[in-house]
UniProtKB/TrEMBL annotation, chains A, B:
This is Polyprenyl synthetase family protein. Pfam families: polyprenyl_synt (PF00348). It comes from the Bacteria. Keywords: Transferase. Belongs to the FPP/GGPP synthase family.
Length: 342, 342
């Protein structure tokens, strides 16, 4: 399909996310409950269900976007939501395993405005918790996928994990390098975000019993959405309101080479040269530096270009959908991906 | 079976290990070769195949004990060695993923007399490499296990990973605690070593198409061997020759609460009290302290007791074997487990 599909959600994406949480959370909680302590307790804290001591303390938790993609992809392929639950839970577990490990690697101390696992229990326990969630995800997927597609689903999930590892490696090392191109940046973001979103959609299709070509199309759809999501994240990381986004530090303060920055640096403009000088410095960025860098990126066209690319990837994602009627939820989520402030 | 089986190997265990390496290494190398760089290069270095730059540099690598258990368990259940290869490779990958993460957590700088992965590539890349090897193991097992038992095998493998995480957590935290009992120590060592050796044997049985009761018996057999292996490791960690064992630092220098130490501390002797004082100190252990601690552990009976327990677990392992004739290799490996110096 090559037609440009217009984005017109039939119901608010927040409702789809809320519905997904209701559908998916019982199996997620059950999987966590089966872990030995203290892994169980640390996991419940990380998911925002409990406080540090394991007492119920409903806090803010993840958006459940990836499980919603899995359930919506299953619907888009003619399946029933219930069949998508094990895959949705497995994808959410993998996402959180990588978040917990990423927080260790990046030294991030806050997530959803709460101290990260490693800051409370230490690096060894955070590494172990990530490892255990990875194990739970794999076990659950193979055991509970319907239609005998557990093995196929696992192969997709573990391939996504390997891509995630590659992307995170490039992200860790690209932060200090100066010669990153737009293609490098896109490749990194495909690994960090695209691979698992592609997998989330492909597993939804598998859960619906879809044919291989449809599963592959949904994988491509999820990858395009993943890139659009990541580009939007990059915009929020520079121009978002920290109070709304939950990101306390501007990406610029950390000299992160996200897509708007790389696009600006590659623009061969006078602004690119000045931005390169600011990014090349070694002193901590002052608020004036940060404001100036944001201005330069915008003047060099990095902001507009990234926004246009995000829209382009959304269009590419929608072109992969098998049937616009059953794909209403997936279209609504696509709309959410680029129209959000957190 | 309750009869005491005598240990009389028909061929040297070193030959079994060499034969296993020849059988298993091609698939292991193939699995690693499929990783994206630099994960591939880091893995080849860790396995002792390549130097830091990726040039062939045959160094010392692991013993291949766990893959040998898998292949021998398959033989013991009437299977052919080739059927056990995917499971043997998966178990070896999981073992190495946990070693790489453990080295990060424990801050260990040497393994097989070579710098550990994290000391060369940094903690983030070492965490990512472990994560990727975990993914490769799961994918390979589900794809390549014969007789349609991939899902069952994966469930056993991931349960073992969760037990490993629990055991490693207890090991990290037990190092500083003072009230550890023999039961605590055995539970920790079952998690750290018994679970994966049990899994290695159970997967060999599954690869042979064994009945559930036999698979369960082989799991128990491997767990008993694992405890015997770990107890022997604990003895080597105190009384072994560092030049032979490849362990540069005595476990006593790190105030490790391994089984001989815990057994001595629990002995209610005068030696236990003196040992507790030495272990309770905060200054680095002097060579005199280390020598005195080893003496006290021996006088309190900790060395003899641990050796007797290792022998007892070997006997318990052998009692689980289905058929002494097909189990010759497994019996030979059991002999190796307690009669070794590295």
């Amino acid at each position: 399909m090559t037609a440009v599909v217009s984005v017109s959600p039939t119901q608010p994406p927040t409702e789809i996310l809320a519905r997904t949480r209701k559908l998916v959370e019982p199996m997620l909680r059950e999987a966590i409950a089966a872990l030995p302590d203290p892994l169980r307790r640390m996991a419940g804290y990380h998911f925002g269900w409990w406080d540090v001591r394991g007492n119920p303390a409903p806090g803010e938790s993840g958006k459940m976007l990836r499980p919603a993609l899995t359930v919506s992809a299953c619907l888009a392929c003619g399946g029933v939501p219930e069949d998508a639950v094990p895959a949705a839970v497995a994808v959410e577990l993998i996402h959180n395993f990588t978040l917990i490990h990423d927080d260790v690697m990046d030294g991030d101390t806050l997530r959803h405005a709460r101290p990260t696992v490693w800051t409370i229990w230490g690096i060894p326990d955070a590494v172990l918790l990530g490892d255990a969630l990875h194990a739970v995800a794999a076990e659950l997927l193979v055991r509970a996928m319907p239609h005998g597609v557990g093995a196929q689903a696992l192969q997709r999930l573990e391939s996504a994990v390997i891509e995630l590892c590659r992307g995170q490696h490039e992200d860790c090392h690209g932060q200090s390098g100066s010669g990153a191109t737009i293609a490098d940046c896109e490749r990194m973001e495909m690994g960090k975000t695209g691979a698992l979103m592609g997998c989330a959609c492909a597993l939804g299709a598998l859960a619906a019993g879809a044919a291989p070509a449809t599963v592959a199309a949904l994988d491509r759809c999820g990858r395009e959405l993943g890139l659009a999501f990541q580009f939007t994240d990059d915009l929020i990381g520079i121009w978002g309101d920290p109070l709304v986004s939950g990101k306390p530090t501007s990406d610029l303060a950390r000299r992160k080479r996200s897509m708007p920055v790389v696009a600006a640096l590659c623009s061969q403009t006078a602004q690119a040269a000045e931005l390169a000088r600011i990014y090349g410095g070694r002193d901590p960025m002052s608020p004036t530096d940060i404001a100036r860098a944001a201005e330069l990126i915008e003047e060099a066209g990095g902001r507009n270009w990234t926004q246009r690319q995000a829209d382009r990837h959304i269009q590419a994602a929608l072109c992969e959908l098998p049937d616009a009627r059953t794909a209403a939820d997936l279209i609504a989520l696509a709309c959410l991906v680029t129209h959000r402030n957190r």
